[in-house]
């Protein structure tokens, strides 16, 4: 009975092992089943004499008369023809124990020969696809037919055809390539159509839809039919195993040739192509945006279409990148244009090239030209390009070289004045031995006239460039007078108070003389820092906000708002060249050339001419249709800076002049320097606080 069931059964160590069926064809599978009463089976580890693939675990539990049997089965797929012998089997139970099976059951695997009555063919439609094409893989199978009552039936009933099972379709397997490496993308599942009578047999057609996405090459493996069909044999119907194999197919997806490709190719590969060009307005003002829309229609994948390249536009300027819109009626590309001159203009025809699949050649479709009437605006936009924005966070203003030299000379004079007292003391200390010779000679002359050494010392101390009288000589000279003694006492007190080094008045005077240079230096520093405090730079965060607004400005209202921010910086006190030129550039882009002219004139008077300022001035003059103004001969800011530096240097230099000399001349020079500094500051303030254009004001010329 075991042989009739086609099973190999063996018992060893409480294990029941079965291999079924004992005869299979290459490509079929057989099962390995193990039953045991020792416990639940966790895993099976079989080893066969020939290579095979093992998988498909299935478990079961059966209890009969209180005896429980656990089972586990696996599916074995042989990889070559021959006799498969179970060399070793290891059974692992759930409790961790391991059992080895020592039996060696066998299964014979026969190689199935191709059935000459069944054929398989495979082809692709179209055979030479291009990117964007719909590709259909067609597999055709021709089989014999069973005739019953004048009808042709499918011969594939399965092994139980005697039970009246309805005929079915053949089992055709088509290995498809990996989607990641293939230039084709499968768009739907395969479809097997109903059989069609062909001669004495039937024709089966299996189709797979694909879409060619890119150029490349793909290979489809050979299709295989491995099934059982019913054949008449000896007046009876018997099952017959049938094998049929087709040939592999290599398909190449190619791009249109590069040779002969015209300008304006939009990527369309189709048989029918059309395009429509439209404008949102045909009557606009100078500088207003104009929208050109090109709608492309082609019987190909819309993803292949790309934005056309516009030809050279006379009187128009393209702004930004085109906007793509996919719709059911085609793909649209919208371009933003701005007219640059007044008159009746014409947008030229846009050449659109596409590849005609039927003719295998390139075609050119030209959209019609479109007329546009451009009117003059209240303020003409600049015909010369303004300069680019420049970010400069340095100090405001530019000074010439000679004021710095004057300032350095004044600083050197001040340093010399501060070091004058120590240097003079050092010189006196070094010259003391030589200067003491003359007082010693005078002391010897006095000692020759008096016998009192104290009186001689007092006479030497009273030396003021000529010989002094001793107290005795003074008393003798004043002897006839009744006030002689009082005069001598007053003379002695005066000598003691003036030259003895004691007393509060001389000490206070010495302290005041030592502090006087420091007080003068502090007063000068306060005088110098006051104009700087009055002309402090604006808030740095305001400059950062203005710079960010200028970079992000795209629409006209955003450009106007950015121009107002930069104008606010100028009004807050930032008179640097970069700030003035940037404010003028944004005012020019905001269609306010008169405001830009006022800012550029102010920049030229403060800092002189520069390349970016000249470029902006040319753009402003072109927008206002007026000739360029002559450059200002004198630069106010440089003169004011030079006068201020020269005044400071002169004040510092005058501090180094000793107070004993040139008192009147020094007072006059100091007064002149202060008057000059005040006048320079007034001129600077007048230039800086000149009238400025109001934010978002109407375009009127404002004098700086």
UniProtKB/TrEMBL annotation:
The residues forming a coiled coil are none
Matching entries from InterPro entries are given as:
BatD
- Chain positions covered by the region annotation Disordered: 177-196
Q: Which UniProt keywords apply?
A: Membrane, Transmembrane, Transmembrane helix
What are the transmembrane regions? 640-657, 664-682
Put simply, this protein is called BatD family protein
Name its species.
Answer: Candidatus Spyradenecus faecavium
């Amino acid at each position: 009975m075991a042989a009739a069931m086609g099973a190999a059964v063996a018992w060893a160590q409480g294990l029941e092992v079965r291999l079924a069926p004992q005869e299979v064809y290459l490509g079929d599978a057989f099962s390995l089943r193990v039953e045991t009463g020792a416990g639940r089976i966790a895993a099976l580890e079989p080893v066969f004499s020939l290579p095979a693939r093992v998988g498909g675990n299935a478990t079961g539990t059966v209890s009969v008369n209180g005896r429980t049997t656990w089972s586990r089965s696996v599916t074995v797929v042989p990889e070559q023809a021959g006799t498969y012998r179970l060399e070793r089997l290891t059974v692992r139970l759930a409790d961790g124990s391991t059992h080895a099976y020592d039996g060696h059951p066998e299964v014979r695997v026969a190689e199935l020969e191709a059935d000459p009555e069944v054929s398989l063919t495979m082809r692709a439609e179209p055979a030479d696809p291009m990117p964007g094409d719909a590709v259909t893989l067609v597999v055709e199978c021709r089989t014999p037919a069973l005739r019953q009552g004048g009808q042709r039936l499918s011969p594939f009933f399965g092994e139980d055809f005697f039970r009246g099972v309805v005929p079915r379709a053949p089992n055709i397997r088509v290995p498809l390539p990996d989607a990641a490496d293939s230039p084709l993308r499968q768009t739907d599942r395969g479809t097997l159509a109903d059989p069609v009578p062909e001669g004495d047999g039937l024709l089966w057609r299996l189709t797979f839809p694909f879409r060619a996405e890119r150029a490349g090459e793909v290979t489809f493996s050979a299709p295989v039919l491995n099934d059982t069909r019913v054949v008449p044999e000896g007046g009876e119907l018997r099952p017959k195993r049938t094998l049929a194999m087709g040939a592999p197919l290599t398909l190449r997806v190619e791009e249109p040739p590069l040779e002969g490709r015209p300008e304006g190719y939009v990527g369309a590969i189709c048989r029918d192509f059309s395009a429509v060009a439209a404008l949102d307005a045909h009557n606009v003002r100078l500088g207003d945006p104009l929208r050109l829309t090109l709608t492309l229609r082609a019987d190909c994948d819309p993803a292949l279409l790309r934005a056309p390249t516009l030809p050279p536009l006379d009187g128009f300027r393209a702004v930004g990148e085109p906007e793509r819109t996919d719709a059911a009626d085609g793909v649209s590309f919208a371009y933003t244009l701005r007219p640059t001159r007044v008159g009746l203009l014409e947008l030229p025809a846009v050449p659109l090239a596409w590849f005609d699949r039927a003719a295998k050649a390139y075609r050119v479709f030209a959209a019609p030209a479109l007329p546009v009437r451009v009117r003059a605006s209240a303020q003409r936009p600049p015909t010369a390009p303004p300069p680019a924005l420049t970010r400069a966070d340095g100090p405001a203003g530019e000074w010439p070289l000679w004021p710095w030299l004057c300032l350095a000379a004044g600083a050197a004079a001040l340093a010399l004045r501060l070091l004058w007292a120590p240097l003079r003391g050092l010189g006196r200390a070094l010259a003391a031995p030589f200067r003491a010779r003359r007082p010693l000679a005078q002391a010897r002359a006095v000692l020759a006239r008096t016998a009192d050494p104290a009186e001689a010392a007092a006479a030497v101390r009273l030396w003021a460039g000529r010989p002094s009288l001793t107290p005795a000589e003074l008393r003798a000279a004043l002897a006839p007078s009744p006030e002689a003694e009082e005069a001598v006492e007053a003379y002695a007190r005066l000598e003691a108070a003036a030259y003895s080094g004691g007393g509060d008045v001389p000490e206070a005077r010495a302290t005041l003389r030592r502090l006087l240079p420091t007080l003068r230096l502090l007063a000068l520093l306060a005088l110098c820092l006051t104009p700087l405090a009055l002309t402090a730079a604006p808030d740095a965060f305001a400059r950062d906000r203005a710079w960010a607004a200028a970079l992000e400005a795209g629409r006209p209202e955003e450009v106007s708002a950015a121009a107002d921010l930069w104008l606010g910086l100028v009004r807050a006190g930032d008179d640097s060249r970069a700030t003035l030129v940037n404010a003028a550039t944004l005012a020019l882009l905001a269609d306010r050339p008169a405001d830009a002219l006022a800012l550029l004139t102010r920049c030229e008077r403060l800092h002189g001419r520069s390349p970016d300022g000249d470029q902006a001035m040319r753009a402003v003059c072109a927008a206002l249709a007026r000739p360029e103004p002559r450059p200002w001969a004198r630069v106010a800011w440089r003169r004011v800076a030079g006068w201020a530096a020269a005044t400071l240097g002169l004040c510092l230099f005058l501090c180094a002049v000793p107070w004993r000399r040139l008192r009147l001349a020094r007072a006059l020079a100091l007064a002149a320097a202060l008057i000059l500094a005040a006048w320079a500051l007034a001129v600077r303030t007048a230039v800086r606080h000149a009238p400025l254009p109001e934010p978002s004001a109407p375009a009127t010329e404002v004098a700086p």
